[in-house]
Amino acid sequence: MADFTNRRRITSVTQLNPIQVEQVALCGTAYDDEDLPADRRLSSDPQDESVLSFCELWDVVVDGAPAYEAWFYQSDSGTIFLAGTTDMVAQIIQCGLECADEDRELELGMAMVRAGLLPPGDSAFERFRRAADGSP
User: Cys-Cys with 90: which of 76, 99, 115, 130 at CB 3.0–4.6 Å?
Assistant: First the structure.
């Protein structure tokens, strides 16, 4: 079972390890198709439209071990990577989970519901909630 843990607000690259710095840059590219460095994505300049606002990083553990690193930004977007890598495995688009691997999508979706990260209005919420509760 996957669980979102260790939520932290990210405002500077100084908070990150080298892989996470790369992840931030990839998050930005996934969001707006612009290839910009992580320090620009986390800039404190309010006039900079390339900044990833409201940036949070979560660890996602499976059976007690880190499996994913989940980034949430811009209030309704995010990117999920395999832990310690730049391998993007899922995205959050307008608050909804998008994942090509059905088993991984179910695992992450159930964890998002348990953590309160998937809004009840999302079209997949009930499916993930029922699976997390063990309901038919």
Answer: 99
Query: What's the pLDDT at 92?
Result: 98
Residue whose pair of structure tokens reads 């090509």 in the numeric block: 100
**70-86 pLDDT, tens per residue?**
999 999 999 999 999 99
Average pLDDT in the 85-91 region?
A: 98
Global pTM reads 0.95
In which region does residue 12 sit, left (phi positive, over 0), alpha (psi from -120 to 50) or beta (all else)? beta
Residue 46: CB atoms within 10 Å: 8
